[in-house]
Amino acid sequence: MYPLAEVIVDVPTMQTDQPFTYLIPADLQPVVKKGMRVEVPFGNGNRHIQGFVVDISETKTLDERLKPIVRLLDIAPVLNTELLALADYMKETTYAFKITCLQTMLPSVMKAEYKKTILLVDKKSEAAHYFPASGEIDYDEAQKNGHLPKLMKFRQAGIVDIRYEVHNKNRVKTVRMVKALVDAKKAEKIFPTLRKGSLRKAQLLEILAAQKEELPVKYFTALGLTTAHLNQGAKDGWLELFETETYRDPFAEHEFETTTNFVLNEEQEMAVAKILAAYKKKQAETFLLEGITGSGKTEVYLQAIQQVLKEDKTAMMLVPEIALTPQMVERFKSRLGDAVAVLHSGLSQGERYDEWRKIERGEAQVVVGARSAIFAPLENIGLIIVDEEHEATYKQEEAPRYHARDLAIWRSRYHKCPVILGSATPSLESRARAQKKVYTLLPLQKRANPNANLPTIEIVDLKDEYSKGNMTSFSLTLQEKMQDRLAKNEQIVLLLNRRGYSSFMMCRDCGYVLDCPNCDISLTLHMDTKTMRCHYCGHEEAIPHKCPECGSKKISYYGTGTQKVEAELQELLPEARILRMDVDTTRKKGAHEKILTTFGEKKADILLGTQMIAKGLDFPDITLVGVLNADTALNLPDFRSSERTFQLLTQVSGRAGRAQKAGEVVIQTFNPEHYAISLAKAQDYERFYQQEMRMRHQAGYPPYYFTVKLTVSHETEVQAAQKSFQLARQLQAALSPNALLLGPTPSAIMRIKNRYYYQIIIKYKNEPALKPLLEQILDESQIDQKKGLYVSIDNEPLNFI
Ligand code: ADP
Ligand code: ZN
Ligand code: ZN
Questions:
Q1: N or C end of the chain: which has fewer CB within 10 A?
Q2: Which tops the pLDDT comparison, 792 or 152?
Q3: What is the pLDDT of residue 4?
């Protein structure tokens, strides 16, 4: 019998989107397992690529054409049976290539990197001058010293060849350690033999004699000894140097105070009881924990997790974006201690890999992380939580376009354990499922802190402010209330809504707007770097002093950037200490946390920021929240804009009055009568849900319809448009009359990085023909790709524009 491995190779194309069979060489037979990464030859020549073993089988007769696996890249499987099955599910639901799904599940350091080496084939040829004795040159090296074009010519002539190898990046971090080989008694004997004045040697000997434990080299260097001293010590037989594996601990500098459980209130108690009942029955029940802001959802999560951990099960909690919720991490670490591993994008690749390894080895029982933490290799899961389940960050915008909430539910089914979707403002989709009893609704209707109440909310019509002659960003009402809080030494949070908004530059004489040369969008002003920048392609140029079109110097800056508002605010309230939080002030690692800590320590009065301040802040002295412009997002041509506006207003209002002191919120808007705003004022999610459901029903949008978005792109507009119309005809012919097509239309930003985008949205209820048709469309689009025409499919897109 010959053992074979089925391998998914790292070539993301339709033709290669299936397992390829390889022979397992004798020496690897005992060790190769499903879920391991391997290096395999692929195609012609010396090309080696990475692959994943997805199955192992045997054959009686050997097929001569089969090639053997070159080597193993892992000593243990990196994807277990569950995750391999999850990859299949993801592929089915997102129309992505299997290899893309598999790679997405692992820390990025485990993605293959390829090393190219140029080989000398004919040693007698003129090419030999370029090679050292080994007959090999690194490809990148050749590129750097300019020999590449010449060498490629030799390659065409067949006297030089290229070898492709997989380069494994996932290095474990090690530290150098010292083990003492002398004890006190031995040291006594050595001391007299030391030369006079060998102070360092004596010092080293002293430390070694006193130490039973192994010590890191750092310990010695901190005391003034050098590695030379240690090497000499090793030569003399006093000590042994060795490497030991270590984790990069991003929280090493952090001390977490331990906290104890609150006595749950009735609503919380009920929620925990129902969740644990499902857990005990080994039931994959989906709960929708709909709790107003400050109702103690986190406490419910924590106490439910504790129960699960007691029975040696594990738990996972997803949060929208961990960098934005340091308080959440703090609460988890302080309650659950070292059991918690944290995965998020703010970690370095190495740190992420280490956290992943900890989980994989079973050293962490609780995983807290952003979207991709859903792939954490936890075993024995007893509870899964998706906090702020309505957040758009749970959907990945590039392939595979998965929604972490769906995968959370899939994993809960696999482990037969409950999953909690938590939010103060659930997505319409989830709330509707709770309505239909597909999910179990768990309501939390009052604030958990018995002394806290929901804030009072006031709406200010900005149209009136303008007619009153107030041209600042702050209404008179808000100004008054801010003065009041400053006098009382209480804190203020101000939100500048940036969605659908940006600062651009325009000539007042000719109306010229500075646009990106590569995209159909105006450039955004960045005062910190004094540049105009494109948020889509990264194009950057200096701020012009005169109009590039007419030469006029009358240039105006439109849109209200946070910096501009900050300056305005400081002028209005000169004594106020203001902290600004936006993309510019939080670019550096840890900057976000630092701003929040400063604010938490009451070293500032006002926190002014974009959407990122709306989440997770829990500070007792915030008694005033101001929303400077509630409606910028309402004007976006997206059916979810009301939902998003309502969610944002509710989130940010929820920052006020979370403890004893009563909170107030001022919402400034041009559309006070819009239901998303008036119902946010009423703090009535349920009524918003009812009203929004009526709108969706009328217009035929989710959750009444399923949706798929097809996007076509090409360097020329005509080609993109033509292809999209052809697809529309193809869809129309195959689908039932109940399916509706929106488009084809140019995408909201038609040109990005010099490519044109056209889109079609399909709305449907029950179309068995759709899935095979979409697969066929993808298949056929392979030929178009050679012409630079790309088709992508987004199942249940979160953005329609
Ligand atoms: P949510 O996540 O729903 O916004 P939190 O879990 O942050 O709410 O709770 C809000 C505040 O109430 C927190 O400061 C928390 O410490 C406190 N809290 C939670 N549960 C209780 C309880 N049972 N008794 C008293 N205070 C509580
Ligand atoms: Zn001009
Ligand atoms: Zn651009």
A1: N
A2: 792
A3: 94
Measured in Å, residue 796 CA sits from the centre of ligand 3 at: 27
Closest atom of ligand 1 relative to the 293 alpha carbon: 4
CATH class of 706-795: alpha beta
Listed residue (2, 85, 82, 73) closest to 36, CA to CA: 73
Cα separation, 524 vs 441, in Å, equals 43
Domain locations in the chain?
2-110, 113-167, 182-237, 266-444, 456-497+561-696, 500-560, 706-795
Mutational pocket test of ligand 1: of 262, 299, 306, 334, the residue with most ligand atoms within 8 Å of the beta carbon = 299
- The CATH homologous superfamily of the domain defined by 2-110: PriA, 3(prime) DNA-binding domain (3.40.1440.60)
Q: Name the residue at shortest CA distance from atom 9 of ligand 1.
A: 296
Look at 262-276, 603-617, 667-681 and tell me which has the smallest mean pLDDT.
603-617
| Highest mean pLDDT, choosing among 3-17, 480-494, 751-765 | 480-494
According to DSSP, the residues that pair with 279 across neighbouring strands are none
456-461 and 664-669 as β-strands: parallel, antiparallel, unpaired?
parallel
Q: How far is the CA of 503 from the centre of ligand 3 (A)?
A: 15
CATH number of 266-444: 3.40.50.300
In CATH terms, are 456-497+561-696 and 706-795 the same topology? no
Distances (CA, A) of 751 to 152, 250, 399, 549: 36, 40, 20, 22
CATH number, domain 456-497+561-696 = 3.40.50.300
537 is in an annotated binding site: yes
Report whether 101 belongs to an annotated binding site: no
Q: Comparing 55 with 2, which gets the higher pLDDT?
A: 55
pLDDT tens string 262-295: 889 999 999 999 999 999 999 999 999 999 988 9
Assigned token pair, 590: 């840890």
Closest residue by CA, ligand 1 atom 5: 296
Q: Which CATH architecture has domain 500-560?
A: Single Sheet (2.20)
Judge whether 547 is annotated as a binding position.
yes
Query: CA 14, 18, 19 angle in degrees (round to 5)?
Result: 150
Residue nearest (by alpha carbon) to ligand 1 atom 25 = 449
Residue closest via CA to ligand 1's atom 20 equals: 296
pLDDT in the model for residue 501? 47
| Ligand 3 centroid to residue 539 C-alpha, Å | 5
**Cβ(16) to ligand 1 under 6 A?**
no
In this prediction, residue 500 carries a pLDDT of: 43
**CB-CB contact of 517 with 538 (8 Å):** no
pTM of the model: 0.82
